[in-house]
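dumping this here before i forget
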Amino acid sequence: MADVAVSALDRVDGGRRWVRYGLLAVVAVLILFPIYVAVILSLKPGNAIFNYPRALLPVDLTLDTLRDAWNQGNMGRYLVNSTVVSIAITVGVMVTSLLAAYAFSFMRFPLRNLLFYLVLATLLVPAEVTVLANVDTVKSLDWTDSYQGLVVPFLATAFGVFLLRQVFLTVPKDLREAAALDGLGHFGFLREVATPLARPSLGALALFSFLGAWYQYLWPQRITNEPDFRTVQIGLRSLSSANPDRLNLITAGTVIASLPIVVVVIVFQRQLVRGLTAGAVKG
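structure:
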């Protein structure tokens, strides 16, 4: 009788497992199908993309469409600009967030909590609200058509300060006091103890910052006039405007612009998961 009950439970567990696998497969198809369509269309020549359902099949493929998108959209220069700007913003955000989060977590100074809440309140202000004021500031500094104009306004973020502060709050105060007794100052403790503990969250913050900088459109469009300083999103817009009837060419440009993001997400996916869960459980 016991064996029959165990066998029945095994069949139920097996059925549930197959249901879960089926649901995961359906979700995977829903997520990957648009990516598949974009890649296939970017490899189709001319009017072949309008020949359904053959247009969705991996036949009649050519690299000429990608080559044309690269040349006509000046994608090489735009990718370099976006990479430089995104890396600079990412590094700046990590440094400023580390220093500010450490100060709000381990240092004692007047109005510390109030200042932190004021920093946090900036998350409620839409970025578009500050564009005009920032544009005037950049123009007054003569930073239009320059890398510093693209980078400096985004070197600090309240989200990064909040994320790392939550991690630092999980560090026992006794650890900081013991380090101080051993002669380890603030910068030494930040370098030797706090930063290694926050490494997963730093990875997640780096990924978020890089993605946010890469997909910027409004700000680069407002402060750049010369192609030498325009980013890849501006290049895609120009490519689309110049070739409104060539969907395969526009899709090819989008695929080219997305490749660095795919690489970054694959490299940092583990840090992203660990960073989002870091500090969720204390003890």
